[in-house]
Amino acid sequence: MDPTVADVLAIASVQAGDPRVRAGEQALGEPVRWVHVSEIANVAGTLQGGELLLSTGIVAADPGVDLVAYVTALRDAGARGLIVELGPHLPALPEPMVRTARRLGFPLVELRRTVRFVEITEAVHAGIVNAQHERLRFTQQVNEVFTTLTVEGARAEEVLAQAGALSGHPVVLEDLAHHAIAFSGTRVGEVLRDWESRSRLAVAGGDTAVAGPERWLCTPVGPRRGRWGRLVVPLAVADLDRVTGVLERAAATLAITRMLHGGKDIALDAHGGMLRDLLTGQITDEHAVGARLRAIGLRVGRAYAVLVLAVGTPGAPSADADHAALDAAAATARTQGRAALTGVTAPGRVAIVFSCPAETDEPAAVRSFLAALSTQPRLPAGLIVAAATPATRFSGLSAALEEATHIADAVAADQGRVGAREVYRTRDLGARGLLWSLRADPRLHQFAELQLHPLLSRPAEQDLLELLRSYLAANGNVAVLARALHLSRPAVYARLKRLSDVLGRDIADAETRVSLHLAVIAHDQA
């Protein structure tokens, strides 16, 4: 950033001359491109604009010079100001010169002690050259950072994180409906407060511009004939050139990566980032969470439905299937007019959050959403839908997402052993849900191993393990088991006796059967 007139007056070599500002105090913040020593009356034609002139007063002391025209010509040529050194030949600045400078708001400074102009020019020019070098270095850094992000196809959150770090300001990506779909920076609650209404006041047009009562810096995102969003620094920026360069480079990166990914909906990608932040507990403050969710377009309600879809074959998630389920969920929300937060939270897991008028309305709202979802043409087959206990506060969404994810994981792991349902809730899991939450506990593994060791230690007895599963599924009813195995009752009794002998336990005993059932579930989940 170039030094201002005030910056030049503050350097030691100028201060040694005891400077006194006679006019143009309001323009001392103007940037100085160069410092030029001039002792000719017709200097205006030699200027390019942005120069601060130094003079020993030869022109000012010349009775043949029209000082009004001289000062006016300097101002019109773009000079930033005039510093005149007083001396025996010029004990004071002529009044016509001072009056004209004041009328024009042109900085006019007198030095009441002798100085060496070469020291002033050396100091200022060194600072200007260093500043230019720093700008070049910074521009190179910005280009390198965003080129790398473009090549890697970075997510919107990554692009905004770098834009925020390089600019030193919060950066927001919003869509054309003024929803803040991605954000980088701190003080979330303050920055995103009443975002939509504040954003609508910052009308910036089709180019980078400062707009609105809060002096936001705005840059459009997307090709000129296909704008789909804009980047915003939602505050007044001091170093406008520096931050503009960062913002425009970030906007280009977002536009290119979106094109390279076939025009994917960056809003859904950003929603996924928000949901992952909630799930991992990175944002828990009610005010901050509320500000982000309202800014992203989620409607405020008395309750929030939280769903997680388990997509694809357990253990073999597919990114294509995830995106197909995500697109179907987003399309369903649009069709129903719901402002929903939808995103991929992990491979094979798609989360959906939307508001409800009240907690008691959540079951009906979920059923309506799932009925509409089932009609989507690209919806992957075999989806498992898990629903959490409705959240009644924004800060409760983190726990609700964790609950729904736990249900989806548990049902997916025991697929085929849990009764088929349109939507699964915590109460539907029973012991399986409890064991799933304890699956990492070594004591549970030890329990399962001890209970099933006689069967697991003998590869030849694997048929007995399947028999035990079938017996437990029949709830110990031999008649039901015989029909399931297509065997006679005597044959089943013979097999069950062999199973009891190998286990060394009476499998007809209720407590023994409970222990074995828990052990089998834990073993299968592991």
TrEMBL record:
Identify the residues that the record assigns to the PucR C-terminal helix-turn-helix domain, covering every copy.
464-521
Tell me the InterPro entries matching this sequence.
CdaR-like_regulators, PucR_C-HTH_dom, PucR_C-HTH_sf, PucR_dom
Pfam families for this protein = HTH_30, PucR
Q: Specify the Purine catabolism PurC-like domain's residue ranges.
A: 7-128
Q: What is this protein called?
A: Regulatory protein
Q: Which organism is it from?
A: Actinokineospora globicatena
